[in-house]
Amino acid sequence: QVQLVESGGGSVQTGGSLNLSCTASGPFASSYSMGWYRQAPGIERSKSELVVGISKEGTTFYQDSVQGRFTINRDNAKNTIHLQMRYLRPDDTAVYYCTVGGGGGYWGRGTQVTVVS
Asked: What is the mean pLDDT of the chain?
């Protein structure tokens, strides 16, 4: 069973920055891609959107809306990913879920990110 521990998040004003981290533990955790989905207010969790992803080799994916503002990196030795979020906007407000193995894999409990104008 893969377990995920998320940290970071909080509330920030528009244009501010926040950092999220996620550490995975359990069998084969290091073999999977990792990333962050987000569930916007009023949206079902099943309809959460993929924001960023990173493979174990370091190949990254960014949703268009966060390209140039969010940066993900991965420490394979620690099975940890870090997400730096800059120039945050109110529409970035969501619960952010760390995942291992994509949307059909393992999910963390989620951490709230709130951007106020």
From this structure: 95
